[in-house]
Design brief:
Layout: H1 15-24, H2 33-46, E1 50-54, H3 57-67, E2 75-79, H4 88-92, E3 96-100, H5 111-123, E4 130-134, H6 143-152, E5 157-160, E6 168-169, E7 172-173, E8 180-184, E9 197-201, H7 204-214, H8 237-247, H9 250-268, E10 274-276, E11 283-284, E12 290-294, H10 304-313, E13 319-320, E14 335-337, H11 341-348, E15 349-352, H12 360-371
Parallel strand pairs: 2-3, 2-4, 3-14, 4-5, 5-8
Antiparallel strand pairs: 1-9, 6-7, 6-11, 8-9, 10-12, 12-15, 13-15
Bound molecules: pyridoxal-5'-phosphate.
């Protein structure tokens, strides 16, 4: 059987046409009309005034932190239950990440733990300079609570919506809540530019600063003049052409991923010990990845690793959920607030193949494999 991937790219059919336009107009790089159009359409989709197309989501986070003037000695709060790219940019700037546990409902940053951590840090004279909030696997975080805390302590929220394009919280799109927010268009995300990201903000000054920093911080002058250190972080016009074709079909991609989730849930929820990520009433997740928890204590012989290996034998890719960052060797000395919620998600959680191009035959084969009696 051909390999079934976790979350492969899914072409819309218009990619080649837009790339061809870009080539014919010779806007191959650096910027060009496809970048402009992609930024406008992305901003309007997310309901934010400005978007800046960048070479990755990681670059977008780096710039967001840089624009807030974060540097050595500063503390930035970050959920522990996420991909390392959420925290790496903190360290690029010489700042220090402090990690926060998840809550049980959406698996995102726990507001209670967040407030405890902020209070504790302020008492020690170490007021955090920013909070990074994440919608993990596309599920919106508890934004009302988190925004209230950020406002109360006057700490800006940077919204890492890398996994959440198309998700909605109380009628507003993910990406429309932070002082700045980021998306990723890496190959495994819900849409891709073959590699890319974006920084969004309602603040025009931030946007101008982002574009300045992303193109080597060139001062206004005919000669090359620099008063600041910049980066080479802009998205190429060819990649933006791919992004335009992908963005046209985002609603279909969200629909397809949600259908995957519903199929898995219908087929598997009757197995004792198996459960899925909750979607609270006022949330709408793009269900970027379908994640399943397998409680090994139910005594039916299943556990996360046995299911992962069983699928691997069938040439089906599945992955454990994110390993908490405070348990990563590289962050072993970082301060952490919370208990074992994220750790347990990692211990018992598995991401199932979730591509929007996953066919009914393949997804049926996956659920059939999982329903087979475990061979332990
Ligand atoms: C993918 C991802 C990123 C990084 O995006 P890249 O475009 O791969 O740099 C950041 N945060 C989260 C939560 C992600 O899943």
């Amino acid at each position: 059987m051909e390999k079934i991937w976790l979350s492969p790219p899914h072409q819309s059919g218009n990619e080649l046409r837009y790339i061809q336009q870009a080539l014919e107009s010779n806007y191959i790089a650096p910027l060009g009309p496809h970048v402009d159009a992609f930024e406008q359409k992305l901003a309007s989709y997310a309901g934010v005034t400005h978007a800046t197309a960048l070479s990755s989501g990681t670059a977008a986070l780096h710039l967001a932190l840089k624009i807030l003037d974060i540097g050595p000695g500063d503390i930035v709060i970050c959920p522990t239950f996420t991909f390392t790219a959420s925290a790496n940019p903190i360290t690029y700037l010489g700042a220090t990440p402090v990690f926060i546990d998840s809550e049980e409902t959406t698996w995102n940053m726990c507001p209670n733990v967040l407030e405890d951590a902020i209070r504790h840090l302020i008492q020690k004279g170490k007021r955090p300079k920013a909070v990074i909030g994440i919608h993990i696997y596309g599920m919106p975080m508890q934004l009302d609570e988190i925004l209230t805390i950020c406002q109360k302590y006057e700490i800006p929220l940077i919204e890492d919506a890398a996994e959440a394009l198309g998700s909605v919280y109380k009628g507003k799109k993910a990406g429309a809540f932070g002082l700045m927010s980021i998306f990723s268009f890496n190959g495994n995300k819900i849409i891709t530019t073959s590699g890319g990201g974006a920084l969004l903000s309602g603040n025009e000054l931030y946007t101008r600063k982002a574009r300045f920093l992303a193109s080597q911080a060139k001062d206004e002058a005919q000669h090359y003049q620099h008063s600041e250190i910049g980066y080479n972080y802009r998205l190429s016009n060819i990649c933006a052409a791919i992004g335009l074709a992908q963005l046209e079909v985002i609603e279909d991609r969200v629909k397809r991923r949600r259908e995957n989730f519903e199929f898995y849930k219908q087929e598997l929820r009757h197995i004792p010990g198996i459960s899925f990520q909750n979607e609270p009433a006022d949330c709408f997740s793009n269900r970027w990845l379908t994640c399943m928890l397998i409680d090994p204590k139910t005594g039916n012989g299943y556990n996360r690793e046995s299911i992962r290996l069983l699928l691997e034998k069938e040439n089906i890719e599945s992955r454990p959920l994110w390993k908490p960052l405070h348990l990563q060797p590289v962050f072993k000395d970082a301060l952490y607030f919370g208990g074992n919620v994220a750790w347990r998600l990692f211990e018992v959680g598995l991401c199932l193949p979730s591509g929007s191009n996953l066919g009914i035959t393949d997804i049926s084969a996956i659920t059939a494999s999982i329903k087979m009696p475990p061979r332990s």
